[in-house]
Amino acid sequence: MISMPRFMYGTAWKKDRTKDLVELAVRTGFRGIDTACQPKHYFEPGVGEALQALYTEGVVTREDIFLQTKFTSLNGQDPNNIPYDKNANLSQQVHESFVVSCQNLRTPYVNSLVLHGPMPRFADTMQIWRAMEEIHSTGGALQLGISNTYDIKTLRQLYTEASVKPTVLQNRFYADSGYDTEIRAFCKEHSIAYQSFWTLTANPHILKSGAMKQLTKKYSMTSEQVFFMFVQALGITPLTGSSSELHMKQDLDTLSVTMDAADVELLNGMLG
Fold first, then answer.
1. CB 108 within 8 A of CB 123
2. Exposed, middle or buried: residue 164 (CB in 10 Å: 0-12, 13-18, 19+)?
3. pTM for the complete prediction?
4. Of 257, 197, 190, which Cα lies nearest the Cα of 230?
């Protein structure tokens, strides 16, 4: 099992550009790909098509790629394009969704299977999680995770009751959640990788700040690069969905630079 890369390429909202952009991302150096069995926002077959082309060409092998997909419950699906039987029970929906994901992605397994968000009833969340554990037990998913979980009580209860503990949490990194300070501490304590999305989009006030302007000069990097360096210094694995080859390269360049501790504290203080 390969370890999770420190940067993930996100494939949401790419539609018919998914194949080309995933190919470009991998050729540029990304080895972690995030997708979902949610036709409303992701074109999962395009990810599989891109990866198969890269395998065939010898650019990478399946073992080189950290592939992460998600089960999305009915409330997150387009009612006219649901990738499983909407009348089936939750457990069956999970299994059907995973079969579709494997077909779309042209793989017998994923490195990470994530629940796209907790259910309103925790009992339903656990029913879904038990089905994901069954997939894990047969080798279909090497690890399990959850997304869009901003209530520490929910995360703590899931961790307590799960037989296969979550090892991934993917959340929006923004001020409205207090930047998940308590949740990130819980993740660190329990060896849960915290992945961030909307990392740049949700933080224009920091990207445009005077402090950031000084740091861009110090590191000879863009504000976006500096902010990615910062979240990585916090132990966060960010997602980027860039469609620009230049920005992809700039994103990956941040992995080779370590931010000074004083600068980390400076930006951390801006999180409030």
1. no
2. middle
3. 0.97
4. 257
